[in-house]
Amino acid sequence: MKRSALILLLLLALVAITSGQAQLGDRFLGETLEYDGKLKVSPLLPDISIGDLKFTVVAGDDPGSVVVRSEAVSKGSLLRLFRFSFLQQYGSVMDRSSLNILKTTKHDVQKERIRDSEAVFDYTAGRVTFVETDPASPNRPPRRIASSIGPEMSDIVSGIYRIRTMPLMVGKTFEISLSDSGLVYSVPVRVAAREQQKYAGKKVWCLRIEPVVFGPGRLIEQKGSLTIWLTDDDARLPIRGLLNLDYGKLDVRLKPQTPK
């Protein structure tokens, strides 16, 4: 289900946000954020629970890098009613200072379909090289894509970190360069409003962020919209993401965090 795979990619983006600093720093190492995703297809029907999302920031093998490990796993009604399962695991290796993406690894399972891939970013050569393999068919030639990149580049996960390094205010617009599966996109982003959202049993003030990822020539070439809410405080906690799709609304909410 190609459409489901693209939706899950966006879900990964929603939960990758932490606080806004030009350098991640040790305070984020070991941080874990967990989310619940539900699909609403009709006001008359209950929400359909589709999956859990978990994201952790860890130190990279290179002292100058950090890694965001992301996992999306199907559950609940999606398994029982539609007999559709998925597992998506990401590893986004970023330069600790510039937040440029260095390497993206993916393990993507949708029912019986499995794909493993790696994208490597070479800023000296100005190129990203993407290679995808099918573990079930080791004799099948790998799928390869290469594209030119600029001096600042993100994948879906690290792109949100880059957004968080920018000073945000209502009405501000900007663009980020994002690469996925070897292709490169320019993504307009707008800070649309300051409004309240419910989190952990209370209302909190948030900034509503609207990345333009749907439409012809964009990351997802279909109708839809993506909205992200970040708490309007120093933490900039991503408490909610909403995808409006042809067949319903996909709502992703941060689970209340347990104090350390």
Describe the fold and architecture.
The protein is mainly beta and 260 residues long. The chain has one domain. It is built from three helices and 14 strands. The chain has helices spanning 2-15, 77-82, 156-164; strands at residues 32-40, 48-59, 65-74, 86-95, 101-110, 113-122, 127-133, 143-148, 173-180, 183-199, 202-211, 225-231, 238-245, 248-254. Strands 8-7-6-5-4-3-2-1-14-13-12-11-10-9 form a 14-stranded antiparallel β-sheet. A hairpin with a 7-residue loop joins strand 1 (32-40) and strand 2. The protein is globular and about 50 Å long. The N and C termini lie far apart (39 Å).
Shape descriptor: globular
How many strand segments?
A: 14
Largest sheet data:
14 strands, antiparallel
End-to-end distance: 39 Å
Strand order within the widest sheet? Answer: 8-7-6-5-4-3-2-1-14-13-12-11-10-9
* Number of helical segments with 4 or more residues: 3
Q: What integer is the average pLDDT?
A: 83
Structural class: mainly beta
Q: Say what oligomer this is.
A: single chain
Model regions low in confidence, pLDDT < 50 over at least 5 residues: 1-5, 12-22
Order of helices and strands: HEEEHEEEEEHEEEEEE
Percent helix: 10-25%
Structural descriptors:
260 residues; mainly beta; 14-stranded antiparallel β-sheet; 14 strands; 11% helix; 50% strand; globular; disordered N terminus
